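Let's do one together. I've listed all components of the complex below, 392 residues spread over two lines.
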Amino acid sequence: MGVPAASTFEPRGASYGRAVISGRELEDARRFAAVRLAEAGVVLTDDERVAIEVADFGLSRLEESGLQLLVYVNTDRYCAKELVLQPGQTCPEHRHPPFDGTPGKEETFRCRTGLVYLYVEGEPTAEPACRPPQGAYTVGREIELRPGMQHTIPPGTLHWFQAGPEGAVVSEFSTASRDELDEFTDERVARTTVVG
Amino acid sequence: MGVPAASTFEPRGASYGRAVISGRELEDARRFAAVRLAEAGVVLTDDERVAIEVADFGLSRLEESGLQLLVYVNTDRYCAKELVLQPGQTCPEHRHPPFDGTPGKEETFRCRTGLVYLYVEGEPTAEPACRPPQGAYTVGREIELRPGMQHTIPPGTLHWFQAGPEGAVVSEFSTASRDELDEFTDERVARTTVVG
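Okay, and this is what the predicted structure of the assembly comes out as:
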């Protein structure tokens, strides 16, 4: 039993059996995202390529629950990002609460490449394409997004999403993004962004 | 002297010597934009392809002053578009005034392909790359945007832009877009969008 390789990351979600993601996993995820963005025709500067964020949501099971993202701009009025998902990777169920007198973040997901299944509030889909990973998932109205398709999520409403078997690149257009305010259904989840 | 082919378009800018753009010009511009977006890796739905807007700014000199655009989303809080410029095409100088108790539109331009020169308020660039077309142009601080580069324009400030010799595809992320409120320096200019 050795010390985890990347002990600078706060260990969370120990019940999932592994405390941290390694520096190797982080670099692999960042490289994966850069390649997929390039394949989608997205040109990045050198500074942006090393600024790709990797979020493991404190669960330390990155391939299962996680997200790679690049923030283009995030003012106090609007935000634009590219999200990159590994094959079958899930962003856990959450919502964006009101803040600073606003109704909370409103966001539009537009699929660029691959395939992503979005799950939102409403009548659950009878035979959904995805099964959520271990955790707390309560909404099940499925919206399939293929390249060129998009969907807007009202503020304060629950949602989660999972990539298809090839992964996905998804543009996110929204009001100001304040990730640290996100409310996750699974209280073990934290919007941890592993950046180094 | 015949009747203009597309007489359903309101004639404007007659001092420029031609009253309207033809249906052929409109279709050519739309097709150009669709091809350039595809080359940039942007996948459009069939509905979007026919919804590409062509703005001639009422000047009826589309190749010189004009813009092709596709609006992904425009809620009352944020907006995202793709702008497509023909080689050397200029979007005339304008600003976005306050409305509905907001400071006015704030926008980020991100170059996807090609090259675009943005001109904003500030110390004029000594040897600018572009010459504006006939009209009223008063700001001259040049910002060169190549693929992967972006710039954010504060609300209420004057700006114009011109594509390089190959044209450009530019993503625009912003607060809510209300084109009809735009204030152009050249009073002959109108934010006319020719869509049919």
